[in-house]
Amino acid sequence: MNMPISGKPPKKLSLKENYALLTRGLGWETSYESMDKVFPQCDFEGIKIHDWDKWEDPFRLTMDAYWKYQGEKERKLYAIVDAFQQNNGQFNVSDARYINTLKLFLTGVSPLEYGAHRGFAMAGRNFKGAGASIAAQMQAIDELRHAQTQAHTISHYNKFFHGMHDPIHMFDRVWYLSVPKSYFEDAMTAGPFEFVTAISFSFEYVLTNLLFMPFMSGAAFNGDMATVTFGFSAQSDESRHMTLGLEVVKFILEQDPANLPIVQRWLDKWFWRGYRLLALVAMMMDYMLPKRVMSWSEAWGMYFEQNGGALFNDLARYGVRMPKYHDVAAKEKDRLSHETWGIFYNYTHAAGFHTWVPEEGEMKWLSEKYPATFDKHYRPRFEYWRDQQKKGERFYNKTLPMLCQTCQIPMGFTEPDDPTKICYRESHYRDNKFHFCSDGCKDIFDFEPEKYVQSWLPVHQVYQGNCFRPGTDPTAPGFDPLLEVLKYYNFNVGKDGGEYLDSEDKKHWEQWTGKPGVSI
Amino acid sequence: MQVDIKTTSVVQLRETFSHVARHLGSDKPASRYQEASLNLQSTANFHYRPLWEPERELYDVRRTQIEMKDWYAFKDPRQYYYGSYTIVRSRQQETMEKSLEFVDKRGLLRDLPQEIRNAVIFALVPMRHLEWGANLNNCFVTAYGYGTAITQATMFHGMDRLGLAQYLSRIGLLLDGNSGESLAHAKTLWMEHAAWQPLRRLMERMMICRDWFELFVKQNLVLDGLLHPLVFRQFEPRISAQHGPALSLLTEFMTTWFDESSRWVDATIKTAAAESPANAERLRGWIAESHSEIMEALGAYAAELFGEDAAGALAKVEATLEARLTKLGVGSTGKAS
């Protein structure tokens, strides 16, 4: 160990050099145990990586800098959350109907942040290159941040409003929450490369502006200072994650031409999976925000058709084409939110949030935003429902819907070229028939049927008797299966879901704020 | 005179989330640590078996032989959730940055005698690779462990290890004038030097361990419990006693960190051991197995660091660990004190 180390004064390191020195050489080629045993998940998906050093670190964050920046952000965020709580900021939102977006967010999105935390830890452990591993690990800890700060921010709302008191329990059980749950578990149960392509690229890079941002902009428009502060605070994390998403796909594609068909198939699959998940966001934007930011159709046009289109143009040099069925999404953009809200209006008694018929002014907004479809197809239905409601006959659908085997949304979407006809597709596999809402969902199933036959479909599970609390006796006199399922969900029956106009949330809002609620 | 500020008379519907209340036994005010940790991980109705492990669920208690009735019985005495964790570390890194600047400006490491600089490089800089291994091991526990109570803490702990690897690299850069030569040299030592090979072999063996709790025990309790005190409580004070406190300034982070995180490691082990005699037995088995392996692996390394005092230094850290284990109810005597 007589290496000559000079005692000369140090040269100044650039950020890039500093990062490279502190990070790049940390890993090593193992020899006492084979690399394949140490990193057992690196090969089975068929992705070929020849040189992990070609990975371009998108963040170049060392841990000390990470602690410094993130610690500072947390100090500021919690100061504002504390002030919000002290000042009863929950009563400053536009209207209590807005709170329902938070219920959807906390039960449907926050658990995904947690899943991302664990999923990126898996990816971080499985990548052979230190640079890629660290990028994944930093996202893993960021996603934990998001899950926890969301719980802390929305915790205060939970003290005053119904429907968000048991988010993880609900996420694991409630019928519509199997849509986000199965989406994320699909990614996590795939290999590390598919996971990062699905989540970092398709989800974070292509679709974040259509998922996370609409909720946060909705919060800003509707006076929810706590959530919007969280949103701003998370924005810098999100932009790091988006950068990682693009780097992941470019890196994989540059490593070997044989990777292209695998990646293209993932892009097709995860575009459609993500797009179907966004049905929940579409209805939130068009129906659940008392003060609207923009319509789903506008958002899709701006964030996917324009920005996404430009992105895929850039990627064309790698041989990547637009994801399959993007044209179907374009055809559906004037229908998606209305069809989805219709489904939830039907089943709101079995949901953890309220629904309602839009007020007259809101219907006018919908007519303006959807001139080709709203007045023709959807307004008459709302007016009918409104009349029924005025007669005291608010419509609740007491049967259970058929679900799509892949996306798990009730089969309520219509044919790409006919908005009046429900779209049904089916496949046969091992003597069973499986049903799909779309060609996109059918394709995904057909490529990996052995995976999607496993789907825990809430409706099937209810009918099979798997959605009752332990000890429930279905033969007892007066047994009410729906009520028992809601108890299994741990719903406060009649408070957590149902028509907004009849809700305790509305009553409390008027009592506590003195502000008039909406009516029909 | 008492002054009461009037606020709106609104009756809260509940104090906390139901999943937190179930753990606390009733609906009562919960801390941020509790709301950030308790029952945060999915436990039921998983959709697909992992392609990478079809015999298990996505989250599955069977990935370790340790059994718990409640995986949220584990508590972090530091009550770290993301916010409290990053705020504490951001303060510590400020202090560390000042120390690095101070030592750099005065050339305190660069001006040490060559053989001392070489000794410091030999002892500390290849350890960056060992810390990287510790990072990956904790990342493994975070990925495949069960229950947020443990996995969030191992997430933080894993990132700490990356931080340690980078601070050790900074010490190398202070010694080589930012050329990176010391890092390259340390890599060669790590890959080839006889005294480092048993430790590298040990680390690679741990990296293929598939029982996450076993890995937790071997890495965070036994290896760290022997190696960190050996380097930062035995070796570093010897250097500083002879050549001034420069190195102490630069390893203060590591010593504070070790004391702090040991409290959490100990609490975790204690909880698992107290759960059942079978757990305690299992833990004792893992500890005994890795204890002798690690002592053996440390022999040649300690001899390089301490020369003829190696046996004494090793005996000291072994006694410290033994005392710790006894306190936790997993000592070789098998009795909790």
From TrEMBL, chain A:
MF (Gene Ontology): monooxygenase activity
Domain YHS: 414-456
Domain of life: Bacteria
One Pfam family cited in the UniProt record for this chain: YHS
Sorted UniProt keywords: Monooxygenase, Oxidoreductase
Protein's UniProt name: Phenol 2-monooxygenase P3 subunit
The organism of origin for this protein: Panacagrimonas perspica
From TrEMBL, chain B:
Coiled-coil regions listed in the entry: none
Source taxon at top rank: Bacteria
Keyword set, alphabetical order: Monooxygenase, Oxidoreductase
Gene3D superfamilies attached to this UniProt entry: Ribonucleotide Reductase, subunit A
Membrane-spanning segments: none
A GO molecular-function annotation: oxidoreductase activity, acting on paired donors, with incorporation or reduction of molecular oxygen, NAD(P)H as one donor, and incorporation of one atom of oxygen
Pfam families: Phenol_Hydrox (PF02332)
Protein name: Phenol 2-monooxygenase P1 subunit
Organism per entry: Panacagrimonas perspica
Lineage of origin: Bacteria, Pseudomonadati, Pseudomonadota, Gammaproteobacteria, Nevskiales
